UniProtKB/TrEMBL annotation:
PANTHER family: PENICILLIN ACYLASE FAMILY PROTEIN (PTHR34218:SF5), PEPTIDASE S45 PENICILLIN AMIDASE (PTHR34218). It holds the Pfam family Penicil_amidase. Residues 780-801 are annotated as: Disordered. Belongs to the peptidase S45 family. This is Penicillin acylase family protein. Keywords: Hydrolase, Zymogen.
Length: 801
């Protein structure tokens, strides 16, 4: 026995010692002194209790150089993944499984666009944003050259190449691709229109319905000369291979001084992004003479897309505007490399590209472009199945070089509301709702996007006619006509990815908007009182109530008999009394989502086929159309086209209920107390290497059960499915609350942690805080930061030896 104990002790110490050696080799450094090339003076970084760097520098260049180094030591592998997605080079690092993903992004045109943006960037003079960006890249590269690289590179047997401005543009291009809703939706809508007919489309919410909630506009008075504000008080399966998350939605609201207890602006933002490890946002606080900023940064981007100074705050949600059309071309019968257009012939532009593949031979392929854009049939299976004609993607983003870096820099450094709006104008795509609040009491929302003017007959959700110019956009709207609200009488601005109201030019701009459930809850709640504080507003940001789901549940329940519930009468009672809250101890969501899935499957899978039914569930059409679908008794969707008889609403809903109760009984047992929502919900933040077992045990971050939901303010989304286990795929990528009465007391939280390095103490230290609805400070007070830091690094100019 003593020998066995001795052996176990030896094994323990060997394992512990080995771990310490590995940790020493790969862990980030949060203490010590480093020399950096290019520093003009010393800079100092204090790391707080959550590993967030607070950078103190003597000048702007030193500050961004330092930021680049510390950002890279915590997030280098994330930067690697982001730049490789945007440049179409994932297969080179991760293998042949990613070849199709590389083909997709190359065909779409993001790498080509990044090169164009870089060419234009290189023509610029030494602007402030260019100097700052190059300093940041220098800092990243000095970490690559001299820092302790994360363990992922050793596991892959690779070393990172140096970072470039083209990598930054590739990352911006990837994030501009966002959630690909047009590519998921338009082929499906076109299929329904062509193969099933208008009576099927009529039941779906292709366009915003009257019952959906819109964001009101409030256009400001402008100087007629300067135009400034007058000062006032299955593609799905392919995308699932991505090792980085997609932007999906977001909430933000800004409450004016007349509705807050402090008499100053209250600012909130929670961006909805696919969950992953590391979290999307990297927080950093910078101080140098004339500048004090706390920002949320994307990997590889030097400026904070979301953040605040002591005087103003900016936030983001996705606009969800329709900025991509598909044109169906007609090939010249005499030459397959030409298309027919306006009684003439237009040649296709053809280029060959080579994809390097890890441990395999390179893959060569062709990309063809018509006058409308790249031909997508080969990389979007839904298009290839629908038509043999070439279908081109016309996408606003690739039509002009990006000025995102200039725009974000200027928003970070703005001195007033006019300067922020001036920066917002530079964003042409993707469509963003930029939210704003400041110390002087201004609140604002701008839809930042270049909006095309389409002919009145065009339905932008259907494939358009590429054989002529008849369906093409005719002009661009001036920015002043974009959706916006500046200092409205309501005392607040809010955006939640829903439809903006009619624009000043009379346009109801099309998009892939959500129905407005979240916006409505936000608007009603804020309007209910005038004493909002940083503390009492938390209940709203963490709310998991959806008012539409109980209406749907009651509609389903009324369609069946009480006896259909059999021994599970408690289920009927739970659904009938449900208020839409997704409390973890509630059984109503567990039953509702499974019953809804089987009802929709019984309605639609026969017409669409299983693959396109699953695609439907992952589009905005599903979210916007559910209520209409299940309540419309005379809908053609109810009939099963594979049978001779005609099925009706009650029959389909009843069959779905029988299946639901049987499956839940098998899954959780006879006792409905075991059917609680917490037993059906799983939250795990996946790392790019976590897809391979047993690496998932080390790299993925598991979290406690959360109140997963569809379209509650605290949106924790999952794919509707028949399995009855709901893996939360996306949600708030941070939760920010800031009261301008005390900027230094602002709060936030990340889904996992600040660091992407497995051996950092900040890898997953916020996961439980996030899951349980708690916050932590965003420190800006110098004495608090420097009093008892968790780490302190001094950076000095490199000496010539």
């Amino acid at each position: 026995m003593k020998k066995l104990l001795f052996v176990l002790v030896i094994i323990f110490f060997l394992l512990f010692g080995s771990y310490q050696v590995v940790k020493y080799k790969f862990a980030p450094e949060y203490n010590g002194t480093k020399e950096l090339n290019g520093l003009k003076s010393e800079s100092e970084v204090y790391f707080d209790d959550f590993g967030i760097p607070h950078i103190y520098a003597e000048n702007e260049t030193d500050a961004y150089l330092t930021l680049g180094f510390v950002h890279a030591q915590d997030r280098l592998f994330q930067m690697e993944m982001m730049r490789r997605v945007g440049s179409g080079t994932l297969a080179e690092l991760l293998g042949e499984d990613l070849v199709d993903v590389d083909k997709f992004f190359r065909t779409l045109g993001i790498p080509k666009h990044a090169t164009w943006s870089t060419e234009e960037w290189n023509k610029e003079g030494n602007t402030a944003w260019k100097i700052a960006t190059e300093a940041y890249i220098n800092g990243v590269n000095q970490f690559i050259q001299n820092g302790k690289l994360p363990i992922e590179y050793s596991l892959l047997g690779e070393k990172p190449r140096e970072f470039t401005i083209n990598d930054v543009h590739s990352i911006i291009g990837y994030m501009s691709f966002t959630f690909a809703m047009a590519m998921k939706t338009d082929p499906l809508v076109t299929k329904i229109s062509r193969q099933l007919g208008p009576q099927y489309l009529d039941i779906l919410s292709i366009h915003t319905l009257a019952e959906h909630h819109v964001i009101p506009n409030n256009y400001p008075k402008r100087d007629p000369e300067s135009k400034e504000i007058m000062p006032v008080e299955s593609l799905t399966a392919l995308l699932e291979k991505l090792p980085v998350p997609l932007l999906e939605g977001s909430n933000s609201w800004v409450i004016g001084p007349n509705r807050t207890a402090s008499g100053e602006v209250l600012f909130l933002n929670d961006t909805h992004i696919g969950f992953a490890q590391p979290s999307v946002w990297y927080e950093a606080h910078m101080e140098y003479p004339g500048f004090s900023f706390y920002g949320n940064h994307l990997a590889g981007v030097p400026f904070g897309l979301v953040g605040h100074t002591r005087e103003h705050s900016i936030g983001l949600t996705m606009f969800e505007n329709d900025d991509q059309d598909f044109f169906e071309e007609k090939l010249d019968p005499t030459n397959p490399n030409q298309t027919v257009y306006n009684d003439t012939i237009k040649p296709l532009i053809i280029r060959k590209e080579k994809i390097n593949v890890k441990d395999k031979n390179p893959v060569e392929f062709e990309i063809k472009e018509s006058i409308h854009g790249p031909i997508m049939n080969e990389v979007i299976p839904e298009i290839g199945r629908l038509t043999t004609n070439p279908v081109a993607s016309w996408w606003v983003y690739i039509l002009e070089p990006t000025k995102a870096l200039e725009a974000i820099y200027r928003m970070n450094h703005a001195k007033n509301i006019q300067e922020v709006e001036s920066a917002v104008r530079l964003i042409h795509a993707p469509g963003l709702n930029v939210m704003y609040g400041d110390k002087t009491g201004n609140i604002a929302w701008w839809a930042a996007a270049k909006l095309p003017v389409r002919p009145s007959h065009v339905n932008s959700k259907l494939f358009l006619d590429g054989t002529s110019s008849i369906d093409e956009p005719t002009a661009w709207m001036p920015f002043e006509e974009n959706p916006m609200s500046v200092n409205p009488a309501s005392g607040f601005v809010a955006s939640a990815n829903n439809q903006p109201d009619t624009l000043s030019n009379g346009t109801f701009f099309p998009g892939y908007y959500y129905p407005g459930d979240r916006w409505n809850r936000i608007a009603k709640t804020i309007s209910s009182r005038n004493d909002w504080t940083q503390e009492n507003i938390k209940d709203l940001q963490l709310e998991t109530v959806n008012e539409t789901h109980p209406i749907n549940a009651k509609s389903l329940t009324k369609a069946v008999k009480d006896t259909d519930f059999g021994e599970f009468g408690a289920v009927r009672e739970a659904l009938s009394n449900w208020d839409g809250n997704h409390d973890l101890d509630n059984i109503a969501p567990t039953v509702y989502y499974k019953w809804l899935y089987h009802t929709l499957e019984g309605m639609m899978a026969d017409e669409l086929g299983e693959a396109d039914f699953q695609n439907f569930l992952r589009t905005f059409l599903y979210t916007r159309s559910v209520q209409n679908l299940i309540q419309t008794a005379n809908s053609p969707w109810w009939d099963d086209i594979n049978t001779d008889k005609i099925e009706h609403r009650e029959e389909v809903i009843q069959n779905a209920l029988v299946k639901t109760l049987s499956e839940l009984k098998d899954q959780f047992g006879n006792n409905t107390e075991k059917w609680k929502w917490k037993n059906a919900v799983v939250l795990e933040h996946p790392h790019p290497l976590g897809a391979k077992k047993p690496l998932d045990r080390f790299f993925n971050v598991k979290a406690p059960a959360v109140s997963a939901n569809e379209e509650s303010i605290n949106k924790l989304a999952f794919d509707l499915n028949g399995d009855g286990i709901y893996h939360v795929k996306s949600g708030p990528a941070m939760r920010i609350i800031l009261d301008f009465a005390n900027v230094e007391s602002s709060e936030s939280v990340l889904p996992t942690g600040q660091s992407g390095n497995l051996f950092s103490p900040y890898y997953s230290d916020q996961a439980e805080l996030f899951a349980t609805g708690r916050y932590r400070p965003q420190l800006m007070n110098e004495s608090q930061i420097k009093n008892k830091p968790k780490g302190n690094m001094l950076f000095t100019p490199k000496q010539i030896r």
